[in-house]
Amino acid sequence: TEPFLGNPQNTIAVLQKYNFNFQKKFGQNFLIDTHVLDKIIRAAEITKEDFVLEIGPGIGTMTQYLAKYAREVVAVEIDRMLIPILEDTLSGFPNASVINEDILKVDIAKLAEERNGGRPIKVVANLPYYITTPIIMGLFESQVPLSSITVMVQKEVASRMQAGPGTKDYGALSLAVQFYADPYIVANVPPNCFMPRPNVGSAVIRLTRHDVMPVQVKDEKLMFRLIRASFNQRRKTLANGLFNSPELSFTKEEIAEAIEKLGRGSSIRGEALTLEEFARLSDLMGEGRK
Ligand code: SAM
C-alpha cells in the first residue's frame, strides 16, 4: 500500500469514520501536508536498512511514509483512542507496529536491543510539544544507540537548539543538545500544515549524534550544573550566576580563580562561553573542590 494519509481529505475521512476527538493535553496536531512529510523523510535519510522509532504517530500519517522507506517502524502512542485507528490505517504496512504507551516510560534501549540488535536507531517524530525537551534529553542521556533524531518542534525551540554563543537564543538547551549532536534546521513549517492548527510556528530539526564527543569533560553532571547556573541569571556575570546558584556551593574565591584560569575577565557572562569553555571551567572547578 502507498501512503494515503497526509492529504486533508483522507485525514478528515479517517477522523470522521472514528468520530475522533482531538486531545489538547496530548499535543495533538496532525500533519496534513505531503510536502512536509517528504521533507522529513528526506532529512532523516531513511533507508531499507533502518529501524525507526516514531514518537506519537497520531492516526499514522508519517508512520505510513516511514514504513514505505524503512525496514521496520515502531510507533509509540499514548492515546488509546488512536490504537484502533492505527490498526486500520497501518493494515497495509506490515513492517509498522504500534505500542500503546507513554514514550517517557518506554525502555528504548531494550527496544533497540531486541529489534535492531543494539545497532543505532533513527528517531523520527512530529513531537507533542509539551514534552519536547524531556523526550530529546532522555534519548541522549540514556544508553539508547542512536544515529539521528529528526523531529518537528516549536520554531523557537529549534532556534534555541541550534543557537551559538552570544546570540539571544543561546542557552542551556543549546549546550545540552550540542554536547550530544550536531543540529540542523531543515525547514520551517507554518500552522496551516496541521489539523488542528497549532498556535505556534513549527520547524523540522535534525540532530545528528556526534561520532566523537566534541569536548572531553571529567564530570558531565557538574558541567551541566554550571551551565544551568550561568543561564539562570541572564545579564548577570558568570561569577554571580555560579555563586548564587542553589545547585552549587563554591566560594567567591574558587569561582574567581577558575574564571581567571579560563583566561576570561571577571565580568564575563555565561552566554559568551562556548561548550569547550564550559567543559574547561567544569574541570577547573572540579579540581578546586578536591
Ligand atoms: N505523528 C502524527 C502526525 O504527524 O500527524 C501526530 C503528531 S501529534 C503533534 C503528537 C502525537 O503524540 C499525538 O498523537 C499524541 O497523542 C502523541 N503523544 C502525546 N504525548 C505522548 C506521550 N507521552 N507518549 C507517546 N505519544 C504521545
UniProtKB/TrEMBL annotation:
Q: What EC number(s) has UniProt assigned to this enzyme?
A: 2.1.1.182
| InterPro entries, sorted | KsgA/Erm, rRNA_Ade_diMease-like_C, rRNA_Ade_Mease_Trfase_CS, rRNA_Ade_methylase_Trfase_N, rRNA_adenine_dimethylase, SAM-dependent_MTases_sf
Give me the reactions it catalyses: adenosine(1518)/adenosine(1519) in 16S rRNA + 4 S-adenosyl-L-methionine = N(6)-dimethyladenosine(1518)/N(6)-dimethyladenosine(1519) in 16S rRNA + 4 S-adenosyl-L-homocysteine + 4 H(+)
Q: Where does S-adenosyl-L-methionine bind?
A: N29, L31, G56, E77, D102, N126
Which keywords are on file for this protein? Cytoplasm, Methyltransferase, RNA-binding, rRNA processing, S-adenosyl-L-methionine, Transferase
Q: Name one GO molecular function term.
A: 16S rRNA (adenine(1518)-N(6)/adenine(1519)-N(6))-dimethyltransferase activity
Q: Tell me if DNA damage is a UniProt keyword of this record.
A: no
- Output the HAMAP family linked to this UniProt entry: 16SrRNA_methyltr_A
Family to which this protein belongs: Belongs to the class I-like SAM-binding methyltransferase superfamily. rRNA adenine N(6)-methyltransferase family. RsmA subfamily.
Its recorded name reads: Ribosomal RNA small subunit methyltransferase A
Which organism encodes this protein?
A: Sellimonas caecigallum
The beginning of the lineage is: Bacteria, Bacillati, Bacillota, Clostridia, Lachnospirales
